[in-house]
Write a structure and sequence with these properties.
Blueprint: E1 2-5, H1 11-21, H2 30-40, E2 44-49, E3 52-58, E4 61-62, H3 69-73, E5 84-87, E6 89-92, H4 101-115, E7 120-125, H5 130-134, E8 139-143, E9 154-159
Parallel strand pairs: 5-7
Antiparallel strand pairs: 1-2, 2-3, 3-6, 4-5, 7-9, 8-9
Length: 160
């Protein structure tokens, strides 16, 4: 397995993986990913099995400490010098799950945030994943203000 950051050439593969991992109400569109890649492709961590994209983690940087729904829609809010690395998605194709690939990508995002002197990382997740993200040091801060996809999300923070 190989890990690298994204380029605009990865757009179709990223959108395809996202559509397999999230229901339509929660999945980002190809157009949203295009904007994200134009603003912060270096904050997409991609994992490949040979030439096949099997998993990715993405998100942008900001000085705003809490993840909001506005952030998903406005890629231009990215601040390369921001204190917080937001994580918008952790995606692994169903046939590749339970092998630790997502964890490797999360560790890559954490290492990148540390190397850039960020304060930490923030993500939201469903209640069934709180224990999973806790293994990486993320702390549950309670129900998020995000109502993305009409789902109850919990905000998790890893302070570096």
């Amino acid at each position: 397995m190989q890990i690298r950051t994204a380029t605009i050439d990865d757009l179709a593969a990223i959108a395809a993986v996202e559509s397999e991992c999230f229901p339509p109400a929660e999945a980002a569109t190809a157009e949203e990913f295009k904007e994200r890649l134009e603003h912060y492709a270096n904050h997409f961590w991609l994992m490949f099995d040979n030439d096949k994209l099997i998993a990715f983690v993405d998100g942008f940087c900001t000085d705003i400490p809490n993840l909001t729904d506005e952030m998903y829609a406005k890629a231009e809010m990215h601040n390369e010098d921001g204190k917080w690395q937001m994580i918008f998605g952790v995606n692994t194709l169903p046939s590749y799950r339970n092998h630790g690939y997502a964890g490797e990508l999360i560790q890559a995002a954490i290492a990148d945030a540390k190397s850039h002197g960020r304060s930490g990382l923030v993500l939201t997740c469903k209640d069934k994943l709180i224990k999973y993200y806790s293994k990486f040091g993320f702390v549950n801060e309670g129900i998020s203000e995000s109502v993305h996809g009409n789902v109850t999300w919990y905000q998790m923070r890893l302070t570096l």
